[in-house]
Inverse folding.
């Protein structure tokens, strides 16, 4: 049997390094690690943070089973003292994170971990994979939802997801990003993402005729009939048979909320023709659902062409974020404690974009008097921005470009999730996360939200943090 | 608590249709469904089938819990009779599948399910997601392994995977496709994929100096030292410090199997320079591991440039199949039984590529006298190709292009996995699947294996099957 405990869902080097820290006296050293990302998928203007609830659950439960220990022992690489330590391992550190649904930007910590070196190291893979995955899908969903201009988007991609978790938690993340529901039933049971569905071609094929299939379905689900009209011929057979079934089965019962679904062919053309046929038949309220390899670009294009689509079902291009399937979050050491003092650490790189922001940090989001977010500022942990005094913004790559701002409000983004190993964060209900995401996205300027060449939102360093970074760069020269 | 039982990892329409089949008397109707794919990722010449072991385990265990039933009842859409049926649900049908590791081609069934309509319908999502995911990653791994021309490839992508299953089963699939190991520890514990690892930048940063970090690591893991040399400056600091640590810690112990890893910068340039420095120091056996956003194109390019890389570590571009993250498997009704006879069914489409191959089918792979595979032939279930008589091949889209073959051997690809609900297939050990994959890939012509414009391998229909298909197309006109 497979061990379902996921403690060993970590990179092997985390274990060899941890054993090394343990044996060389660094195991208890307090460290600060940041999880942050470097680029926004699809060249977008912002990403949507997601995955925190599952990360918190993982860390709260994190422990090593007898089977895990026996497996590691079999590798003949780990000391018995370290294995004994793992046996009673629990996470004892602090974690700060940006709540799910928040629009986020490159180079700001989405998660900061303050913990003994071993603990911080052993959670690296899970922190990354959970946040990278769900943020990727929430970000993609947000793009599609914006493209649909108010029309609902349903997530239909389970069958093309990268495994079970990708299907289920992908549906969750898509909902946070603004989708209206999913086809993935278990995502409803476990996470409260509303599940719905229509019918497959096999339903239509199973019956002696398309009309029989439609009639039977309408009789079974009078309040939930979405008839798939493209099994044989959308306009010559599917739509007329659907109209007949609506008329003969649903109209006599006084039902009005029914739909048709088009899954293939030229959606723009077929939807307009189908719309005219439905209107002509008196079914102006019948909605048209379009599915079939859609993404934000195709949705935008369909609407520009005047496609008569009321609801979009999206599959593979959302659940895999097909056009850009990698969220590039990394997990980097930012500081250590030495004799109680926080000592900032930096990772240098020939590639300046890969140089890290050192130190234990805070992130403030700054809003102008109209309430719009205009910049995030990374500060040293002991700085406070309360909006009472002016603030100096400058481009960290061009520090002579300065701007003094007086009339603004500030909100701290990182909130405590663990304190001394105890979970202190209660994840909001999924619907509340989704609403929060929509509200926070609404606080961004349209220029940040456009798909093509969006404005680069400012993520600046405070003067104090910038100075620390320059000193470390100098010291490493 | 989340329900870990995955019975509801199905599209909601599978449940509404099943309830509909149940209530309208179609529930027990014996159906045949094929899982097949339409296009090979990355424009390649073949794909590698994977995921069958997990699919078989899923189906063997498939059942609905009290929680599942209660959840469905809360939807007020399903009949009590159907819910009672689900309560005692077990899969009772037959399943045939192409074994994992087999090179496969578009439009041939990787899985054929013969089962009562409801059972066949309820497993649709899982059949697709498991085979689509693992076949995607195995196929991508096979491409990267071929690009590396015999050098080992290690899978390092967990942190960028789409969730936990994507990391773990992705590592399994990558191994089947030819990778030599993974960084994902639990993939070793649960599936026997050899896990290994090096060190992170954080290890180097944790110590007072890079040299201290290297020295400590070599002393701890003399037989497994792979030193990461790019934390500060690869050629000025990393490689010299590694050489010093090897010389001072490992040479006195007589150890020789050690490596360095380069994770950033210009790998071609740095690896050649590092190679020269290592050779100069007398460490000709020290291997160079290269990592950092690699894929088959970059690997091929690096080797063309003469990069001195001995081992490649690949991450996000393998575990997400970044350049083409969708394996487009579908699940389509191929036949039903009526009064004991198999009645073929077809799905028509305006797009001729989307018209299905009807009927309960066999797949034969045909080998020429040199042992190379030259075509697959789809046949009706009761046909036999045993290589004793000549066979007529023709292009199903251009049936006048005929070819009679006499000197060949044939092998049936679909093997029984379930018979009457009982699992009759024992999955081979993972190493055997990997070896089988390498051997079977070796039976393909080089022209099918090249990356750019590969030869399109023939997947033909037998005359009998082609005739059935034409008759169904005529009947639907």
């Amino acid at each position: 049997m497979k061990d379902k405990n996921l403690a060993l869902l970590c990179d092997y080097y985390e274990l060899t390094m941890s054993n090394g820290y343990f044996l060389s006296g660094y195991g208890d050293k307090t460290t600060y690690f940041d999880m942050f990302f470097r680029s926004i998928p699809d060249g977008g203007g912002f990403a949507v943070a997601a995955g925190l609830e599952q990360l918190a659950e993982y860390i709260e439960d994190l422990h090593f089973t007898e089977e895990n220990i026996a497996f590691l022992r079999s590798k003949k690489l780990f000391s018995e003292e370290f294995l004994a330590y793992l046996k009673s391992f629990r996470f004892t550190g602090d974690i700060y994170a940006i709540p799910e649904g928040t629009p986020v930007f490159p180079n700001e910590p989405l998660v900061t971990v303050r913990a003994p070196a071993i603990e911080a190291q052993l959670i690296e893979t899970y922190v990354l994979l959970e946040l990278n995955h769900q943020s990727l899908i929430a970000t993609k969903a947000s793009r599609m939802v914006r493209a649909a201009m108010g029309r609902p988007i349903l997530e239909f991609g389970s069958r093309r997801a990268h495994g079970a978790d990708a299907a289920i938690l992908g549906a969750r993340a898509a909902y946070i990003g603004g989708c209206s529901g999913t086809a993935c039933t278990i995502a409803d049971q476990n996470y409260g993402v509303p599940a719905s569905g229509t019918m497959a071609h096999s339903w239509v094929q199973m019956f002696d005729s398309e009309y029989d299939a439609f009639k039977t379905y309408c009789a079974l689900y009078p309040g939930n009939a979405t008839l798939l009209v493209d099994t044989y011929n959308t306009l010559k057979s599917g739509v007329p048979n659907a109209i007949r079934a609506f008329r003969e089965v649903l109209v006599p019962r006084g039902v009005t909320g029914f739909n048709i679904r088009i899954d293939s062919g030229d959606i723009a053309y077929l939807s307009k023709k189908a719309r005219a046929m439905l209107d002509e038949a008196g079914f102006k309220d019948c909605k048209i659902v379009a599915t079939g390899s859609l993404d934000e670009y195709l949705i935008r294009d369909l609407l520009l062409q005047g496609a008569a689509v009321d609801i979009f079902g999206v599959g593979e291009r959302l659940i895999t974020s097909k056009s850009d399937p990698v969220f590039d979050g990394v997990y980097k050491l930012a500081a250590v404690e030495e004799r109680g003092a926080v000592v900032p650490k930096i990772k240098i790189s020939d590639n300046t974009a890969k140089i890290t922001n050192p130190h234990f940090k805070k992130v403030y989001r700054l809003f102008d008097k109209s309430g719009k977010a205009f910049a995030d500022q990374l500060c040293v942990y002991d700085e406070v921005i309360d909006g009472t005094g002016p603030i100096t913004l400058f481009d960290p790559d061009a520090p002579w470009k300065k701007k003094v701002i007086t009339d603004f409000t500030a909100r701290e983004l990182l909130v405590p999730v663990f304190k001394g190993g105890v979970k202190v964060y209660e994840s909001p209900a999924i619907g509340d996360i989704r609403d929060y995401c929509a509200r926070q996205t609404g606080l961004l300027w349209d220029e940040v939200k456009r798909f093509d060449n969006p404005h680069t939102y400012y993520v600046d360093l405070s003067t104090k943090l910038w100075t620390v970074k320059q000193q470390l760069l100098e010291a490493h020269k």
